[in-house]
Every structure is written in structure tokens, then in C-alpha cells.
Design goal:
The complex is a heterodimer of chains A (306) and B (710). Chain A has 306 residues and is an alpha/beta fold. Chain A has helices spanning 2-11, 30-50, 66-79, 112-120, 139-142, 164-173, 187-204, 235-238, 255-276, 283-305; strands at residues 18-24, 54-59, 85-91, 94-96, 101-103, 110-111, 125-130, 147-151, 184-186, 214-216, 241-244. In chain A, the strands form 3 sheets. In chain A, strands 2-1-3-7-8-10 form a 6-stranded mixed β-sheet, sandwiched between helices. Chain A has a 3-stranded antiparallel β-sheet with strand order 4-5-6. The chains are: A alpha/beta (306), B mainly alpha (710). The interface between A and B is medium-sized, with 32 and 33 residues.
Chain lengths: 306, 710
């Protein structure tokens, strides 16, 4: 939690830009076509309404060709700086032949290796959310340091059409996805939200789950379903802001408030430590100490906000 | 023994065997197989039968006996295959026909009667077929025919113990404990426990469980190794909630190699009870799976108490003890409860004061209205209790269906396509024979049709003669009166005349859709095609009269949802709302659609109606975090604080995606209800998850300051 906050602050420098590229691939049938373009449209609407310094490109329908995807990413490669962020979201049907993954697009498809080569030329830190069927087959090709990769399926053999995109879209616009209440939905929060909703969907439909989302952000892992400190996955994703929900808090550069900020940091660390030691403390004592710390933190925050 | 002597002995035996004719050898092998079977050595018997059939592939008799071994060993499908093979060799083999009849009877399949009759045409001396027909008649509560069939068996074989047991059962069911038949049976075989076991089975089928248990006890008292009776005793003890004794009986079976599916599954079910938590009040015992207990209890327990209070008033008497309701999230566990019972039993089942039903989490959202099912089953508790379990199935089911609709019109049975088909094909049964539709259906949807018919009959009586007549009929059934007697007494007409009046009413009500059902189906398909093509104006135009021709249809592809989608595509929200409200009133249960209606109502500035739409879903699919969150917010804004508290608690009971906000919402509601300590606890929980949560911080400070200011 603490690490995430620090990285988030670093990521929020004044002139940083986030580039969003959303691609809705070929549906094949009217129902899927409608669904894919609909989700892409909803993502675009959410991103536009969230404001900030964002550059949004949405490729859907006949415009979602390999050439257009290449052109968009090449433009960003020229424009982006290391402080910037790039978010690529892929919706549609995918395939995996045991070696390479491809997303189905009108005309020639786009393979994971082509996509990886295009992304490698973009200097910004990156988040790739591949929401297609068989997307798990793309992880090994797409993973890289400074890149978060999320896939809808755990392997290239989960080939059924996915529902992950539906819940990813929901995560972007549902304040409930912002579990730490910092007015920003991080990549990790959106992943957790969509993952839980996918699981609930299959359970409620009484169907065996045909997709199991994965996250990889170390650049060398296989992707995990439960990113945590234990498997060292999820730290970068936690610090990757995806959508800002409200007016994100300004960083107080006021020297008068530095003392308060230091106190706030200290209190947050004490709370983290107390939570860590919870199993070893009697419940009443834990509650008492936690309440005291939380009250202190609330007062400090109140002073900071004044 | 020296080698020479041994050789001589073996040679003598071999010579003797060789001297036998093939027929004699086969007969000996058959005897050996039967002896092994009788000694419960099923594997040994199976091996001998297999060799026998291999050596004589064209002998249908051996196949039939082998089939009967399989039937006895809980493998009815394998048995049926062998009976069919026997009939392929000899198309009217009576043993093959009887075997198939027994397999059908085991599944309460109406074909059993036809097959047994066919067997008797070929072999009029087949006593077992008469006994089977007598049993089937008793399952239908047709005592007269049961007695006649048993008499036919006794004419052929005067000492037939099972035929005598049928007579004994008839007497016992008619409350004649001093039947002479049991004396005759025991004089012939003092250890013939099957006579009591048979009676136990009929009592259970007639839902007289306590008495059934008594007969199973008698069966094992005179024949302690009658494992079938031990197993049935265990299963029925479990049904009534006597779990410890049930386990003891079933484990006894298990240790003695009686390990059929019902025994095994019931033991597994008893094991699973460790995952359940029990809540008790003065008149309810509620058993819920631990994983969903916290979520469901606030909905189920008050609704259960509301139903009991309503029925106590309506039926005019108080139950003797608390009713136990068991709710199973795993449908397979629930299915064990209904194993070996006739009827649909698909949603809920009542055993005296114990009711078992599926949990809403055990079914696809929208498929199941748990509250309607619960009210249905609780009605059975009263009707069975008032009649001392002596009520025909049609009446108690009819009352239960009628009561569902009485709670709320959208809860009850609607006219569905199966019923329309049955009405069209004149398949509704006379009231005096309606039980047959539940117990021995002759077509796949007959049980569903019979539920509908029974419910409509009760509704018809309530409307034409008044609800008090239904209660009078219920009390008449307690005196062992038959359906014709009760109809004549209370409605002053013969059953045939009642059937005529009832069918005339059904005909008038359904004539239009029954006559035009094929056109309606065609129209429905055309509208679906128009919707697929995005022809929204055409969808609206074409579907209006079609929708009104069959307004009860709210299932897949229904016209309410189609029209609402078309209206929305055209930007006409008011008409979309109107369409979806109509859908909800009729009984539409698609959770996504009802949530969409709530969204539209909020947008239209009708939050109170939106809350009503969402609350409707609490009775259909309460396992939905989004529902509780939205309804909680709506009620909180409408100052229904208790309602909001319940909804926010439900959110927290089901691992919410946003625990911090969920605790905070509950804190807000507690604060409004002036439950400040609870509010503070929830704020601490919210901030434990998200220490920087500003809104929660603010409220915690406010509460703290208010406390200090006291």
C-alpha cells in the first residue's frame, strides 16, 4: 500500500501524459461485433469524462486494422516521453497456435510479437490489457520490465469468447473499484474488480469458468491470478493509475505542510504495522489502538486539507 | 490324502460333470447364481450369470434373471438393457415385460402399468405383475384397485406374501391396525419383514412419514438383516430431522455392504451438515450453509415468520412445534432429500415439519423465486398437519400454488406453453384422478401441468364458493374422505359435473391463446427477426397485439423485453419503463431486466418505484452485491433506514468488491438510526481497509467530537 502511494506520486508529475489505445477486433457475428464496439465505445466515454492530460485513440469496426494499430503506436512512440504512460486495451477474439498469439482484426491479424515490437519502441511505462479469448498465450511475448500485462485468460488454450472486457469496462466507471479510496482506479484495482466479477458471473450462471484472468508486471513471470507481495506481482500495477475519479489530490509543496505530511506518512506506517501484527494482538486492544491511530490520521488529513 | 486318491476324486467329479446334459449343467449354474444372489454375493452371482448368458446367448430367461439381479443391485439401467435384450429374442417374454415394468415403477414412470398389463396378457398367472399393479394403485391412493389386483395375485397363488402385504397395507393406511392379513403372513413366515417394509413405503409415499418410520422399525424388528428397511428407516429419519439415529441406521447398512446410492448419498449429506449453521426462534429453525448464512438469514427468517403468521390466521390453527427449513446451496445435496420421492420435487420438499429447498445461490439468477417456493412448502406444513397427512396430493399442491399467488400475483404459476399444449390436447385430468398426474405421469410435462391444474382448481373453488370451502375440504380430507366424497359434500355436485364447470372456466380463459398458439409462436419468431435486424419501429408495431394475446409469457424472447429494448433504441424511455413495469407485474424475473427498470425509474425521478423494482429481486436473486448496494442507497435516501441497514449488511455478507465503501455505507445508516457505537465500528473497519478514505475519516471525527462534547 505504501509503495503504491509513493510510485503513484512519482507518476503524477505535472507534464506527464497518458496515451490510451483501445482496439475492438473483429466480432465475426453481429452480436459480438456489437458487443466489442460497444465496450470500446464505453471505455472511450469513461476516459474522456475523467479528464486529465490524456490522449485517447479508439479503433473499432472497419477502422480496427493492423495498419491502423501500427500507425497509432508508431505515432505514440515518437511523441511519448519516459514520464508518460501508455495503456493498450484489446477487445475481441484471439487465437493461439502454440507459438504465437494473434488478435483477430479486419484484414490481417496482429500477432503478439508484432505488438511487442511496436510497444518496445514506446519509451513510456506501459499497461497492456488483452481481453480476448486465448490472450493468456500472449503473456510470455508481451511481458517486459516497466510493463504491466493483464490477460483475460490463463493460457492460449482458453478459447471461448470472454466476458472479462465487460467487467473491465465496469471497473473503469464504478467507484467501487477504487478500494483504497484515493480517487484513482489503479490497474491492480481494476484487475481485482474484473477478476472477481468474472468469477461471480460464471458461478451465478452455474457454468464452469472458461477464463481465468492473469496479471504479470515483473517482466519475467508467468502471470498470476492472485498478485501479492508473496509472489512479487502487482506492485507496478498498484502504482499504475488507470482512471481518476475525482479531483486527485494536489501534492502539497507548501513547506508548512511538510511536517504534517511526514506525520501522515508516519501514521500510515504505524497503521500498516499494527495491521501486520493483528494476529498477535488481543482483539479489543487492536481495535483500541487502531481507532486511536485512525483518529489521529483523520485529524492530520483534515489539517492538510485546510 | 495321497496324490493317487486326490486324482481319483477329481476324476470322479469330472466324469460326473461330463455325464450331465447341457441343460442340466445350465440349470445347475442357474441355481448356483440364484443361491449366491440370495446370500447377497452379488459379484459371485454376476460372474455365474455372465458365463451362463455367454454359453446360452439365445436364452431370454437367463437374461431376465440376470437383469433382476442388476435391479436388485441398484443398477436399473443395466437391468433394463438385459430385459430389452430378452425381449429382442422373444418379443412378448413376460419376465422381460415385467422387468421393464419394475424399472419404470422405480422411476414413478406411468408406463409401468402398461408394461405390467402386457406381461399379464402373455402370462395371466404372473403373480408378481398383479402385486406390482396393486402397488402402483396404492401409490395413486386407489385402494379399491389395489385390493382387486392383490386378490388376483392371491387367486393364482393363495400364499403370496406380498399380495397379502398389500392388503395389510390397505388396512393400515385406512387406520385399521387390527388387519387379519399380517397374522396370516407371519403365520406363514414369522420373519417376513418385507410385509412391514412395504407398508412403510406406502406410508412414506402418502407423506405419512412418522407412521412409515414405525413400520420400518417393525420390519427390522422381525428381520434384523433386512438392509433395505434399515436404509429406508435411516433416510426417513433424516428427512424428519432425527439425524443421529438416521446416521446410525445408514452406517449399519454401510458396514453390512448395503451401499446403494440413497444410503451413500444420505450419509454424505449428513456429513455435509457440519457446514451448516442453525438459527432458532420460537417457531422457526433455519439451517443455512455457513458461507451464505449471514447474507440470507435477514431475508429468509423474517419471510418465514411472515408466512407462518399468515397461514396460522388463514388456516385457523397453530402448529405444535417449530418448523425446520433447510436451504441447500448445492442442488445435489437438496436432490438427495427428494431421492425416491414421486413428483417434481425440483425446488422444495416438505416432510412434516421439515422443509428442504434449494438456495437461491444454487440456481441460475432468475430461474428461481425462493420466497414463492418457501411459501408453497410452508402451506404444505399446515395442510399436511391439519389433515394428519391424509390429503390427496392434488389438493395440498393446489392449495400451495394458490397460496403463492395469494401472497403476490406475480409469484404464482403462469400459463406456460406446456399447459397450453395440454389444454389443446385435452390432457387435463379429472379431479378425482389428478393425483396420477403427480405420481405416475404419462408424459414428460404432466407434473408441471398437474401443478397448474391443481392450483387453478383451488383458485376456482375459492372464487366460486369462497375460501372457507377450501378450508372445509381440507378438514374433510382429515377424515379419510376421498376426493369425490369431499367434492360432493362441499360443492354439492358430482366430480364429473365439477370437472365440466372447471374445464368450461379454463376454456373461456385460455381459448384465444390455445386456438392461436401456433400463430403466436410464428409471430414471436418474426418479431425476434425484426429485432435482430434493428427494425425497432416494426418490432413495436408488430408486437403489441401479439403481447396481449399471451400476456403470461415472460420467458426467453418475451415481448415485454423486446419492446422495451426497441423503445430505448428509439430514445423513448417512458414507454420502455411502462413495458418493463408490465413485465415485472406479470412475473418477469430476469434480474438484469429488473435492474434496468430500476435504473430507468431513477433516471425518471421515481426512486421509490425503483426501490420497489429492486426489492422484488431480493425474493429472486439476493446473491447480488450490486442489487443490495443500489437498494441500500435508494432506501437510505428515502429515509428507510432499517431497510438500508439490511441491504448494506447484505453487501458486506458477500465479500464485496469495495469493502471500505460498504462499511462506510453501513456506518452512515447506523448513524441515521442513532446506533452510534455500531457506526463507529463500521468506520474503523472501513478505514482499516482504506486509511485515507476521506469521507470515513470525516465521519469518524464528527462522531468522536460529538462524543467528547457530551
Amino acid at each position: 500500500m505504501k509503495l503504491a502511494t509513493v510510485l503513484l506520486l512519482l507518476a503524477s508529475t505535472a507534464d506527464a501524459t497518458t496515451f490510451y489505445v483501445t482496439v475492438a477486433g473483429l466480432g465475426g457475428e453481429p452480436d459480438y461485433e456489437q458487443r466489442f464496439t460497444g465496450w470500446a465505445g464505453e471505455i472511450e466515454a469513461v476516459l474522456k469524462s475523467s479528464g486529465g492530460d490524456a490522449k485517447i485513440e479508439t479503433l473499432k469496426g472497419a477502422g480496427a486494422t493492423r495498419a491502423n494499430v501500427r500507425a497509432a503506436l508508431e505515432r505514440i512512440a515518437h511523441e511519448a516521453k519516459p514520464d508518460d504512460a501508455l495503456v493498450v486495451m484489446l477487445i475481441g477474439h484471439g487465437s493461439f497456435d502454440g507459438v504465437d498469439y494473434k488478435i483477430n482484426l479486419p484484414g490481417p491479424d496482429l500477432s503478439a510479437s508484432e505488438l511487442a515490437a511496436l510497444l518496445d519502441r514506446v519509451p513510456a511505462r506501459q499497461l497492456v490489457v488483452d481481453m480476448t479469448s486465448a490472450s493468456g498465450g500472449a503473456i510470455n511475448t508481451l511481458r517486459k520490465e516497466n510493463r504491466v500485462v493483464i490477460t483475460a485468460t490463463k493460457s492460449g488454450t482458453e478459447r471461448n469468447a470472454t466476458v472479462f472486457a465487460r467487467f473491465w469496462v465496469e471497473a473503469l466507471r464504478d467507484p467501487a473499484a477504487d478500494t483504497d479510496k484515493n480517487d484513482t482506479i489503479s490497474a491492480l484495482e481494476a484487475f481485482h474488480y474484473a477478476q472477481q466479477k468474472v468469477a461471480e458471473y460464471f458461478e451465478s450462471q452455474k457454468r464452469l469458468a472458461t477464463e481465468h484472468p492473469l496479471l504479470e508486471d515483473t517482466g519475467k513471470g508467468e502471470g498470476v491470478r492472485d498478485p501479492s507481495a508473496a509472489n512479487r506481482e502487482g506492485l507496478r500495477a498498484a502504482a499504475f493509475p488507470l482512471v481518476r475519479l475525482g479531483a486527485a489530490s494536489a501534492i502539497a509543496n507548501n513547506p508548512e505542510k511538510r511536517k504534517l505530511l511526514a506525520k501522515k506518512d508516519q501514521l500510515e506506517q504505524e497503521i500498516d504495522l499494527l495491521k501486520y501484527n493483528k494476529p498477535t494482538i488481543a482483539p479489543d486492544e487492536y481495535k483500541k489502538k487502531l481507532t486511536a491511530l485512525l483518529l489521529d490520521l483523520a485529524k492530520t488529513q483534515q489539517e492538510l486539507d485546510q | 490324502m495321497t496324490a493317487r486318491v486326490l486324482c481319483a476324486s477329481v476324476c470322479v467329479i469330472a466324469t460326473a460333470l461330463l455325464a450331465q446334459t447341457p441343460q442340466k449343467r445350465a440349470s445347475n449354474e442357474l441355481d448356483r447364481a440364484e443361491a449366491l444372489w440370495k446370500a447377497h454375493d452379488y459379484e459371485g452371482a454376476n460372474t455365474v450369470f455372465r458365463e451362463l448368458v455367454k454359453a446360452h446367448p439365445n436364452n431370454p430367461d437367463y437374461k431376465v434373471r440376470w437383469g433382476r439381479l442388476f435391479l436388485d443391485h441398484f443398477q436399473p439401467n443395466d437391468a433394463a438393457q438385459l430385459f430389452l435384450e430378452a425381449l429382442a429374442i422373444k418379443k412378448d417374454h413376460p419376465g422381460g415385460l415385467l422387468g421393464l415394468a419394475l424399472v419404470a415403477a422405480d422411476k414413478f414412470d406411468g408406463k409401468a402399468i402398461e408394461l405390467a398389463d402386457q406381461a399379464l396378457v402373455v402370462d395371466p398367472k404372473l403373480t408378481e405383475a398383479y402385486v406390482l399393479l396393486a402397488s402402483l394403485a396404492l401409490e395413486d391412493a386407489d385402494f379399491t384397485r389395489a385390493g382387486e389386483e392383490a386378490d388376483k395375485a392371491l387367486e393364482v397363488s393363495p400364499g403370496d406374501l406380498d399380495a397379502m402385504a398389500i392388503h395389510a397395507s390397505i388396512d393400515w393406511l385406512a387406520d385399521k391396525p387390527d388387519t387379519p392379513w399380517i397374522g396370516r403372513i407371519l403365520a406363514q413366515n414369522p420373519h417376513y419383514g418385507h410385509a412391514y417394509e412395504l407398508a412403510g413405503r406406502f406410508f412414506v409415499i402418502n407423506r405419512r412419514y412418522e407412521e412409515g418410520i414405525g413400520y420400518y422399525r417393525k420390519a427390522i424388528a422381525i428381520q434384523p438383516d433386512l438392509w433395505t428397511a434399515h436404509s429406508e428407516l435411516g433416510i426417513n429419519l433424516m428427512r424428519l430431522g432425527y439425524d443421529e439415529e438416521a446416521r446410525s441406521e445408514l452406517e449399519l447398512c454401510w458396514r453390512n455392504k448395503y451401499q446403494d446410492d440413497p444410503t451413500k448419498n444420505t450419509l454424505m449429506l449428513l456429513d455435509s451438515y457440519k457446514n451448516f449453521v442453525t438459527y432458532r426462534t420460537d417457531n422457526t429453525i433455519l439451517k443455512l450453509d455457513k458461507k451464505e448464512a449471514e447474507l440470507l438469514r435477514p431475508y429468509i427468517e423474517p419471510e418465514m415468520k411472515r408466512a407462518l403468521a399468515t397461514y396460522e390466521k388463514k388456516y385457523g390453527f397453530k402448529l405444535e412445534r417449530p418448523v425446520q427449513l433447510e436451504v441447500y446451496p448445492n442442488h445435489e445435496d437438496f436432490a438427495v432429500r427428494t431421492l425416491g420421492m414421486p413428483g417434481l420435487g425440483a425446488l422444495g420438499v416438505t416432510f412434516g415439519y421439515v422443509v428442504a429447498m434449494d438456495s437461491p445461490s444454487g440456481r441460475r439468477p432468475g430461474d428461481f423465486h425462493w420466497a414463492s417456493t418457501m411459501w408453497h412448502e410452508l402451506s404444505h406444513v399446515y395442510v399436511l398437519s391439519a389433515t394428519h397427512h391424509r390429503v390427496p396430493r392434488w389438493f395440498t399442491e393446489g392449495m400451495a400454488v394458490y397460496e403463492e399467488t395469494a401472497v403476490s400475483p406475480d409469484w404464482g404459476d403462469r400459463l406456460d406453453p406446456h399447459v397450453i399444449a395440454a389444454i389443446k390436447d385435452k390432457k387435463l385430468l379429472p379431479v378425482a384422478e389428478l393425483d396420477r398426474g403427480f405420481v405416475h405421469p404419462t408424459y414428460p410435462t404432466q407434473v408441471i401441468v398437474s401443478y397448474f391444474q391443481a392450483g387453478r382448481i383451488c383458485g376456482f373453488i375459492a372464487r366460486e364458493w369462497g375460501y372457507a370451502k377450501l378450508l372445509a375440504m381440507m378438514h374433510d380430507f382429515a377424515t379419510d374422505a376421498t376426493t369425490p366424497q369431499v367434492i360432493e359434500k362441499e360443492l354439492s355436485m358430482r366430480p364429473e359435473e365439477f370437472d365440466k364447470k372447471f374445464l368450461a372456466m379454463i376454456d373461456a380463459e385460455t381459448k384465444s391463446i390455445v386456438n392461436n398458439f401456433d400463430d403466436w409462436k410464428k409471430g414471436l419468431k418474426e418479431v425476434a427477426e425484426l429485432a435482430g435486424a434493428g427494425e425497432n419501429e416494426q418490432v413495436i408495431k408488430k408486437s403489441e397485439t401479439l403481447r396481449d394475446a399471451y400476456p403470461d409469457y415472460v420467458e426467453a424472447g418475451n415481448l415485454y423485453e423486446r419492446r422495451a429494448t426497441a423503445f430505448l433504441a428509439l430514445g423513448n424511455k417512458p414507454d420502455a419503463i411502462q413495458e418493463l413495469e408490465h413485465y415485472a407485474r406479470i412475473g418477469g424475473r430476469n434480474p438484469d431486466t429488473l435492474k434496468q427498470l430500476a435504473t430507468l425509474l431513477v433516471e425518471a425521478g421515481r426512486p421509490a418505484d425503483a426501490a420497489i423494482a429492486l426489492n422484488r429481486l431480493n425474493y429472486i436473486d439476493p446473491v447480488d452485491e450490486d442489487l443490495h448496494r443500489r437498494l441500500g442507497d435508494l432506501w437510505f435516501a428515502q429515509h428507510n433506514i432499517e431497510g438500508a441497514i439490511r441491504e448494506y449488511q447484505a453487501v458486506l455478507a458477500w465479500k464485496p468488491v469495495d469493502p471500505a465503501a460498504s462499511h462506510f455505507n453501513l456506518a452512515r445508516a447506523y448513524r441515521s438510526a442513532n446506533r452510534l457505537d455500531d457506526a463507529r465500528d463500521q468506520l474503523v473497519l472501513a478505514l482499516e481497509t482504506a486509511p485515507g478514505y476521506r469521507a470515513a475519516q470525516k465521519m469518524l471525527l464528527e462522531l468522536s467530537q460529538a462524543e467528547q462534547g457530551k
